[in-house]
Design brief:
single chain; alpha/beta; 7-stranded parallel β-sheet; 6 helices; binds NADP nicotinamide-adenine-dinucleotide phosphate
Length: 238
């Protein structure tokens, strides 16, 4: 085990996997920066972190907006220090038959799920490379490995996450920066609820957000010389 890196920035941290990951990182000893678009739920999670004695900071922003993300990163760095860990988690899940999918659906999906990777990673990566230390964790999906009916936009965006991640890893691994892509199956969150095109699955059989957070914490606890670069986690008995 290595000494935990100190500051983590989690996008989409006001709900689901992001919220659970922010809490797990805080409990593991990190200071935690957070963002989401809606101020109310974000303020709630910052309060929840602080109530546990975790140093937390964040402000609302859309991860596809470079100015908003720059302001977020400046805000978090000024209060907690530069991010050693970035969790690119924010995302949306618009599942529709292709014949019903609109260009707006497509653009919304790619803004939150793909453009965000460019915008947020650009904002923190140069600092990580200068410090020769960093961990970028990108949340893809099993939909990043397989297509499914209703997934033309979502699965395409999550395939893009894997291509981004493996290419980024090739570029930064010799600069002390590690890159992990996490591909969860169904997790019981708002994003997964009422997605009838994915078929019925009782919520109690789905993964919980805490399960995904736990594998992220495990991957971070490896020594600097070791990297789990891709990780699939699925319900054991869907
Ligand atoms: P969720 O419960 O709906 O939470 C999504 C979080 O992201 C919220 O905090 C949301 O807050 C934020 N967000 C969404 N778009 C954003 C944007 N453009 N800018 C900033 N924040 C944004 O979803 P989840 O299930 O935890 O999903 C988290 C990630 O896991 C996503 O990338 C998703 O694709 C992936 N995933 C989920 C599942 C699953 O079954 N649930 C499976 C595989 C992968 P605001 O709406 O306030 O912005």
């Amino acid at each position: 085990m290595t000494t935990p890196q100190r500051v983590a920035l989690v996008t989409g941290a006001s709900a689901g996997i992001g919220r659970a990951t922010a809490l797990a990182l805080g409990r593991a000893g990190y200071s935690v920066g957070v963002c989401a678009r809606r101020p109310g739920p974000l303020a709630d999670v910052i309060a929840e972190l602080r109530a546990e004695g975790i140093d937390a900071a964040g402000q609302p922003c859309d991860v596809s907006d470079p100015d908003g993300v720059r302001a977020l990163v400046d805000h978090v760095e000024s209060r907690l220090g530069p991010a050693d860990v970035l969790v690119n988690n924010a995302g949306v899940g618009i599942l529709k038959p292709f014949s019903e999918l609109t260009l707006e659906d497509w653009d919304t999906t790619f803004a939150s799920n793909v453009r965000s990777l460019f915008v947020v990673t650009q904002a923190v990566l140069s600092g990580m490379r200068q410090r020769q230390r960093g961990f970028v964790i990108n949340v893809s999906s099993l939909a990043g490995r397989n297509g499914f009916k209703g997934g033309t936009a979502y699965a395409a965006s999550k395939h893009a996450v894997l291509g981004f991640s493996s290419s980024l890893l090739a570029e930064v691994r010799h600069d002390g920066v590690r890159v992990l892509t996490v591909c969860p199956g169904s997790v019981d969150t708002d994003l997964r609820r009422d997605q009838h095109l994915l078929g019925e699955m009782p919520p109690e059989r789905m993964l919980r957000s805490e399960d995904v957070a736990a594998v992220i914490i495990d991957a971070l606890s490896l020594p600097d010389r070791a990297l789990v670069s891709e990780l699939d986690i699925r319900p054991a008995a869907p």
